[in-house]
Amino acid sequence: MNDPxxxxxxxxxxxxxxxxxxxxxxxxxxxxxxxxxSSQQRGAKLQFxxxxxxxxxxxxxxxxxxxxxxxxxxxxxxxxEPGDYLLEREIPAAFFEGNAAALVDFSTDKIGHDKEEQVxxxxxxxxxxxxx
Length: 132
Prior knowledge:
Layout (H helix, E strand, L loop, with lengths): L9 E5 L8 E11 L5 H4 L1 E9 L1 H7 L2 E7 L2 E8 L3 E9 L10 E7 L3 E3 L2 E3 L2 E8 L3
Antiparallel strand pairs: 1-2, 2-7, 2-10, 3-6, 3-10, 4-5, 4-7, 8-9
C-alpha cells in the first residue's frame, strides 16, 4: 500500500497513506491487479490482507465483505470480530480476460467511523497469485 508505483492500482475508495504503511478503505473500494501468467489456463487465488480494528468494530459490529472480479461475484465473507485477516478466494480461469489486468470490487454492508470520518478496514496488501 505504501509503494508509490502501486497507487495506480488503487482505483477508488482509499484514504491517504497512514503511518507510511496502510490505508483506510471506504465502504466501496476497487483495485486493479495483474493476474499471474497461468491465470487463463489455471485460474488464480485472490488474497487480501487487512485489519479490522477494535475502534471500527465498536461502530460497525459484524459486517459482510462482498467482492467481484471483472464483474463476476465471489463468495462473500462475514467477519464477527476485530482482528488481522487474510481473505483468500479461488478465481476460475474463465474470470480472466486475455492478459488484461483484473478489476476487483469490494464492498462492506456497513461503514464505521473514526474521528468523524467514515472508515472501513485497514488495507495492508492485495495480490493475485498462481494456484499451487
